[in-house]
Amino acid sequence: MDRDGQLSILVVDDNPLNVKMLETPLAKEGYRIITANDGPDAREKAVLEHPDMILLDIKMPGENGFDVIKFLKNNASTASIPVLFLTGVSEINSKLEGFDLGAVDYITKPFHPLEVIARVGLHLKLSIATNSLIASQAEKLKQITEAQTSLLTTPDQHPKANFGVEYIALQEAGGDFYEVLPVSDEIYVYFIADFSGHDISTSYLTTSVKALLKQNCSPIYQPQESIKMINDVLVEILPTGKYLTASYVMLNKKKNQITIINAGHPPVCYIPVGGEPELIQLRGDVIGIFKDVLFGSRTIKVSKGDRFFLYTDGIIESSQKKIVWTEGADKILKACRVVKNIPIRHAPKKILEHICPDLTCLEDDIVILGFEV
Length: 373
Fold this sequence. Notes:
Layout: E1 8-12, H1 16-28, E2 32-36, H2 39-49, E3 53-57, H3 65-73, E4 83-88, H4 92-101, E5 105-109, H5 113-150, E6 163-168, E7 176-184, E8 187-195, H6 200-216, H7 223-237, E9 244-252, E10 257-263, E11 268-271, E12 278-280, E13 296-301, E14 307-311, H8 325-338, H9 347-355, E15 366-372
Parallel strand pairs: 1-2, 1-3, 3-4, 4-5
Antiparallel strand pairs: 6-15, 7-8, 8-9, 9-10, 10-13, 11-12, 11-14, 14-15
Helix pairs in contact: 1-5, 2-3, 5-6, 6-7, 8-9
């Protein structure tokens, strides 16, 4: 559709008489008509003009209509343009092949003006309705994404927690989630999770997990007890096959102590002051499938300036390169070594830039959450 709201139609036929027979009645109906007399001209004008519909002759010298529609459907900018083929009445095989390639209908030669107007009008209405539905769904998903993002805690909300975070959702409904929660004035919980499956329901489940963390992270519970209670609730409410992996870290500044709980998640990276990064390897069951579970746990003494980085597997795994986190862990160690002296608020972003500078290597949502004692 043009800026002034006029619908445009690209008419493609090597016979000037056929072009004129289509152009005249359609122009009288108020459509802007663009014409092309061969395949290459049609491809160029389709990309340049992006018409609302294409009327495409099958039999043309050189590049025929089938060649043109293959190009159009394999080009992101033209794939959604409805194509009506122009064909002879007896060309049944051509019609079937055209439908397989993505044509929405046919106009049979010789043309009847009223039939042309009716078919064009019908498919433009369908196309407009489809595009409107897609736009509506996209807007709803955008609202879900914005709502999901608004649930995520920012460093400014809890400055004493002394953390930084980098969060990227590749899909509208992200499957990765984090939370930073003050349990008391000197005790903080840092939580990161990755849901199986990234459908819309995940965005609602993150709200549940956030609420469960607030309810069960308390000085009266040990970290293992908190995670166990969260697991028991999620077993009851998660859909079949849905679960999450997670790392749960509690920092007690009064005791100079960190407790790490692992639930089937990649290992936390620990950088002691003046030391080298290391991965704290723990084994644990995932959350949300069974009530009888065991979570990996470790408690260590820490010093002021020690750093910890939690992350989801999207930062190091690649299905295309067949890399799993156990093989990609060296990337995390190298990146953490690079950011040792960078302020903690900026360190997660720098880790991402070091591992995947232009973001093209990302195949999944990612969260990198770092904090400093």
